[in-house]
Structure formats: C-alpha cells, structure tokens
TrEMBL record:
TM segment ranges: 31-47, 53-76, 97-117, 123-144, 151-174, 180-199, 220-241, 247-268, 289-307
Protein name per Swiss-Prot or TrEMBL: Protoheme IX farnesyltransferase
Keyword match Membrane: yes
Further information: Carbon 2 of the heme B porphyrin ring is defined according to the Fischer nomenclature.
Amino acid sequence: MADTNAYEGAASDNGFEAGFGDYVALLKPRVMSLVVFTAFVGLWIAPVPMNPFVAFCCVLFIALGGGASGALNMWYDADIDAVMKRTANRPVPAGRIPAGEALAVGIALSGLSVMMLGLAANWFAAGFLAFTIFFYAVIYTVWLKRRTPQNIVIGGAAGAFPPMIGWACATGGISVESLLMFALIFFWTPPHFWALALFMKGDYSKAGVPMLTVTHGRKVARRHIFAYTLVLAPFAIWLGFTSVGGPLYLAVSVVLNLLFIAGGWRILHRSEAEAEADGYRVEKRYFRLSLYYTFLHFLALLVQHWAGPWIGGW
C-alpha cells in the first residue's frame, strides 16, 4: 500500500489551511466533467424518458460518485503525485488536505452517492455506480497502476462506465447502445494517455509508474497508439447505426475518426529525434485532439437525439 502517513500532518505543519477550492480539486473536477457529461448523455438519449428533476438528481449523484473515486485515488497516490510535476500541487501531496481526510471524504461520498442513486433511479444503476467506484479506486489505483503497463488499458473501463450508468438510470439495464458508448471511451483511453506519456515520460519514470513509454519505450507506445485508433473507429462509427445514432452523429464520427487515425499515423512514423527537435509538437496536437474526440462524439449523440425529428434518424 502507498505510504500516506507522511501526508497526515502536512496540512497543519506547512502552515496552509485547506479552502473550498482544495476540496473541489480533491474530487478531480476536470476528470469529473467528462464523467458528468457522458453520464448525462447516456441518460438523456435512453429510450425511457425521465422526469427532468429526477434526471438532474441522478447525474448529480453519479458526479458525486466520480468525485469520490477521485478523492480515494488522490489519497492512495499522494506519494507518487508528490514527485510528478503535473500532480505535485494537488491538495493532498501539496499538504493542504491530510491524506486521512481525503480518505474519509472519498468513503463518505461513495456511500452517499450510491445510496441516493438507488433511491432516485434504481438499485441496478446504484450497484453499477458502486462497482465503478470500486473498480477505479481498488482495481485500477491500488492493483493495476503501479504493477503493469496495461494499467490504463484495463483501468480505462472505470471512465467508460458512466454513460452505461446513465442509461441504466433510465432503463434499469444495459443494451447494445450503452455497450458501444462504453467501447468508445474504453478504446479511446489508452491512446489518449499514451500520447500524454510520450511527452511526459520523465514524470512517470520518476514516480515509478510503469506506463508503456517507461517499460517498453516510446517506439512501442507509438505503435500501440496507432493500433488503438484502428480498433476504436469501428465501434465509434457502429454507434451511428443504432437507435441513438443518425446521419449527424455518423458524419461527426467519420470525420473525427479519420483525423484520429491520421494523427496516429503521423505519430507512428515520427522518430524520437524529430519529436525532440520540435518539442513533441505532433504528439501534443494529437493529445489535444483526443481531448475533443470523446466530447464531440457525445455532443453529437445529444444533438442527434434532440434534432432527430428535423434532421432525421434511422
């Protein structure tokens, strides 16, 4: 288990006092924003309509569950976060929130979010949320992250569950559509993070996190990025031919996947000398594209659903 004892008294020892913003940061709001949005889309485009207030409550409780996962992750990873430039200023490694307090917040929000989602929607969705929190906090954070370069491949499932949870809130189950939404995020996650690791390899190496770029080198990571773009595209486009798809979504998906494959192809054929010479410009551009990729797919699903009567569906 990670050594979090060093962070227990840090908040009081360093003279800092946690503010409201630190507790918000503890929940990883940037990550949570994608969780909230994809869960909302999964819920809203489901074939079973929900009362808008109940739907809002469901998304809120899913967001709290996502925040709970972030707090538990930050508690356990405080030691490695402290040595990585990208994460050193997070509230636990920076000493603004004691590790034990982060753990307590994570556990409390986990229980609250699961219980309230069960009461607001159904217990299948609540159980799904509980499993997602467990998967991210235990399977990914505790077990996979520090042990295998496949950490982000398997662990990426945690970030892919929210649209399925949203769908389950409305329908009480799963379907081909929700599984394809899961697949879209699941197969997008590895190239997204490996692209980041290409120009952040030093951070992961220093922290002892066995990312693919650290264990197998950047050349292997480049091959994997391109391979995953090829695997991802059929699932993303297939979603366009289901009951939640349509011509607008399909057009957006085809364009985005062509851009993603082209970017992966350019990364595949880059040498390290070329990348270092221009400051990993192509890799950073691909990473920025990956940030828009998932958001635009789910936005297209939402617009397709709302505008279907005017633009047509299947």
